[in-house]
Amino acid sequence: MAAITSLASLEQALLQVGGTPRVLEALWDGDTQGWYLCVSVYVEKSVWPLKKTVCHALGTVVLGTDIRLFNGHVPP
Q1: pTM of the predicted model as reported, rounded to 2 decimal places
Q2: Planar angle of CA 41, 33, 10, nearest 5 degrees
Q3: Is 23 exposed, middle or buried (0-12, 13-18, 19+ CB in 10 A)?
Q4: Bond prior to 21 in cis (omega within 30° of 0)
Q5: CA-CA distance, 7 to 9, in Å (whole number)?
Q6: Torsion of CA 28, 41, 21, 13, to 10 degrees
Q7: Predicted local confidence at residue 43, as pLDDT
Q8: Can you give the pLDDT at residue 69?
Q9: Where are the chain's structural domains?
Q10: Residue from 58, 59, 54 nearest 19 by CA
Q11: How many CA atoms lie less than 13 Å away from 19 in the CB half-sphere?
């Protein structure tokens, strides 16, 4: 997945997908390497009379790399 570093890069990723955006999903996750958001968009594509919803992974937003939170050295 590509790195999303600004609102402009998120907008660019959305424009490349095409279709009609229906849902923008951001899932927060973390591990020993840090915190990040996985960003996806669900778009509706249609060819009359059928409609189809497709999920596209846009990229990740890195929120930090502080393992001290897991070790108890920094209060949450």
Answers
A1: 0.71
A2: 25
A3: exposed
A4: no
A5: 5
A6: 110
A7: 94
A8: 63
A9: 7-70
A10: 54
A11: 19
Q: Is 70's pLDDT higher than 80?
A: no
Supply the DSSP string of the chain, one letter for each residue. --B--SHHHHHHHHHHH-SEEEEEEEEEEEETTEEEEEEEEEEEEEETTEEEEEEEEEEEEEEE--THHHHTSS--
Instruction: Determine the residue type at 61.
Output: V
HSE of 61, CA atoms in CB hemisphere, 13 A: 15
Say which residue the tokens 């890195």 belong to: 62
pLDDT digits (tens, 9 = 90+) for 43-61: 998 888 888 899 999 999 8
